[in-house]
Amino acid sequence: MKKQQKILVLGGDGYLGWPTAMYFSRRGNEVAVIDNFNKRKWERQIGVVPLVPILPLDKRVALWMEITGSVITPYVGDLKDSRFVRRVLKSFQPDVIIHYGEQPSAPFSMMNTVRAVETQVNNVVGTLNVIYAMHQIVPDAHLVKLGTMGEYGTPNIAIEEGWLDVTHKGRSDRVLYPKKPGSFYHLSKVHDSHNLEFACRVWGLRVTDLNQGVVYGIETEETGLATGLQTSFHYDAIFGTALNRFCVQAVTGVSITPYGKGGQRRGYLNIMDTLQCVELAALNPASQGEFRVFNQFTEVFSVNELAELVRNAAKDVGISASIRHIKNPRKEDEEHYYEPVHTALPKLGLKPQLLSSTLVESMLGKIIEHKDAIRKTSIKPRVSWMK
Amino acid sequence: MKKQQKILVLGGDGYLGWPTAMYFSRRGNEVAVIDNFNKRKWERQIGVVPLVPILPLDKRVALWMEITGSVITPYVGDLKDSRFVRRVLKSFQPDVIIHYGEQPSAPFSMMNTVRAVETQVNNVVGTLNVIYAMHQIVPDAHLVKLGTMGEYGTPNIAIEEGWLDVTHKGRSDRVLYPKKPGSFYHLSKVHDSHNLEFACRVWGLRVTDLNQGVVYGIETEETGLATGLQTSFHYDAIFGTALNRFCVQAVTGVSITPYGKGGQRRGYLNIMDTLQCVELAALNPASQGEFRVFNQFTEVFSVNELAELVRNAAKDVGISASIRHIKNPRKEDEEHYYEPVHTALPKLGLKPQLLSSTLVESMLGKIIEHKDAIRKTSIKPRVSWMK
Predict the structure, then answer these.
(1) Alpha carbon distance A304, A104 (integer Å)
(2) Smallest CA–CA separation between A173 and chain B, in Å?
(3) What is the secondary structure of A147-168 as a DSSP string?
(4) Fewest CB within a 10 Å sphere: which of A68, A121, A264, B138?
């Protein structure tokens, strides 16, 4: 029943990009990916590695072909190079562009001036080149752009999906939802969103901005087809998220360390739901000129709730873990109101797979398998927001 | 009665930067300027020149010393070079940084991908380097940053000064005023504002963001001291504003050409009032951690009102000018609600000098003096928002 489309995945070598490419390929779409391997370069520069080694893109693409008979076409190049972007769009003529091709870490962006600038230039310029090339070459294509729930910060009012109806001094307007992001990385996504809204308004582009929560899990139907197809699992303080770090801490027998009071509440979703959401967006494109925003997560947890979930799941597999709060390296509210709306994707048909102790236990199992590869020192926070 | 301060003017070779440097120097402050002459480079690249030739910065600084006995220290370098920015801040130790150092033209930013990227990178990276260096070297200094009223667009509700009190679903918050800017240039200023608000919130910087209207006039007390001290007058379609273009059109005997219906309403102010506003901001700094926004203009006009003002002033000096509406190269509302608040600067003591036919007549007089230097072809719009 599903429409077959030409899908171009930006950042196709990454944690989400690669599973997305396989997901669409397996469903009969024609898939190409772009990557410049910046993420792998940054990992080497700061001295972290994913828990399980990840094959190079060309090897994964070849393995995919071997196993499924389907082609995923890799284009190797930098989105900051506008001529490269135009060349790929001319050659591939995508119907949908799914854009994960950005520097994804808040702590990385807060390391120093150079990393802050690198993050904002990489992310903003890449997206600018993509929208310019779309406008010139594939004006009817649909851009599905990954943003983050972190763009909103933690306002004292409900977080709507991208837009807010305001009445002020007796008059009304629908405005972009005001943002208060928490790092130069999150700010880069806010800048992207403003550039995208403009491109829709002035050029009539179709854009869906997915303000995604924190993704957990590493297994999808496709990664399960072969060891060589798996995607990256980061547990370090730069590229790893809280749930991953907590699981690795439990396995290595050190305390689980929430930052500060641990009352920080955020939206979360399973990697399988990311794929579902992106597919729903692709199958139900934004209208011409529409800047559409979805809040993409399925559940809200506090950091403390995650820490307890991991402690309890660890107990079930025979590991005794303790929780120890450490000084928060970030500057953020540690107790706050949080009421983000997230109804648009369920309305399109999203069937969420909620976080369970079963899933955490399976993550713990995977980590135990690779316990010897864990670099314990990389979990400790090394970037202070205030430095 | 005025406090003497160390004032660093970024973009000190420019239309507003140079008069600002002289203004503060003449009032006994210690003044330094930074410039990399990018603006002069861009003028050469696109083939436009100011109506009256402008001396190089070193010659203007020497002349200023000769006439007033005061030193304006020039630092030549690029704000995109973080080490250069740090070096200047360490050496000069400013109390106030007045930041005009950005690519200032909307049509320039809309020429093509390369110019869009150049504009956003130049403006955003420069400001990022400045705030990082302030945080590290002069955390108590006050940044007075020039933004633009064009960041707001033309919403259907009153435009407040940077922040908006919102009540939503029974709860309240004070949020950044939502933005809907009209070009990649205006977007770059929106990006700056978000980065600045973050730097105040997380690092405790003091920032005043001046959302300035369209500035007219080229004469200040200091430019009047010698011909060699004058500032630039642009009338071309890239760097010139509507009032300047209309005056030059009247003098050269071609029709005054408002874009589209001419109902576009904007805030305007005299260059002398820019200097007053910047001084008021410098003398009354933002508090530590405060991101303060002032809407900096004194009057609102529609493009049609400006066209008629010029036609009438021209008539008074014996020139018969006609008005002819041309296709709008921009994508913008040509008839819209516009109610921008601008009370903060008057509360600090701003005494505006409103736009009069006398001022327009004096501009016409100046243009007539240099009539032979006018390049008529440069007035015609050459950048389409839709291309």
Answers:
(1) 23
(2) 6
(3) EEGGGT---SS-B-SSEEEEEE
(4) A68
Beta-strand (E) ranges in B191-290?
Answer: 206-212, 214-216, 265-270
Closest CB to A181: pick one of B117, B198, B386. B198
Classify residue B262 as left (phi > 0), alpha (psi -120 to 50) or beta: left
Q: Residues B21-52, buried b or exposed e (16+ Cβ, 10 A)?
A: bbbbbbeebbbbbbbbebbbebbeebebbbbb
Q: Is the ipTM of this complex over 0.85?
A: yes
What is the three-class DSSP state of B69? Answer: coil
Per-residue pLDDT of chain B (387 residues; tens, 9 = 90+): 357 999 999 999 999 999 999 999 999 999 999 999 999 999 999 999 999 999 999 999 999 999 999 999 999 999 999 999 999 999 999 999 999 999 999 999 999 999 999 999 999 999 999 999 999 999 999 999 999 999 999 999 999 999 999 999 999 999 999 999 999 999 999 999 999 999 999 999 999 999 999 999 999 999 999 999 999 999 999 999 999 999 999 999 999 999 999 999 999 999 999 999 999 999 999 999 999 999 999 999 999 999 999 999 999 999 999 999 999 999 999 999 999 999 999 999 999 999 999 999 999 999 999 999 999 999 999 999 998
Contacts of A196 (CB under 8 A, 6+ apart): A127, A131, A143, A145, A205, A207, A209, A291
Inform me whether the C-beta atom of residue A325 falls under 8 Å from chain B C-beta atoms: no
Q: Which two tokens stand for residue A166?
A: 């305001």
* Tokens 């203007």 -> residue: B60
Contact B116 A128 (CB under 8 A): yes
In angstroms, the CA A244 to CA A257 distance is 12
Residue A189 among the catalytic residues: yes
Residues of A within 8 A of B338 (CB-CB) are none
The answer to whether the predicted template modeling score (pTM) of the entire model surpasses 0.80 is yes
CB atoms within 10 A of CB A173: 15
CB of B335 less than 8 A from some CB of A: no
Ordered structural domains, chain B, with CATH? 6-379 (3.40.50.720)
Across chain B, how many H-helices and E-strands are there? 12, 12
Give the three-state DSSP class for B325.
Answer: coil
Q: Please report the residues numbered 84 through 113 in chain A whose beta carbons come closer than 8 angstroms to any beta carbon of chain B.
A: 112-113
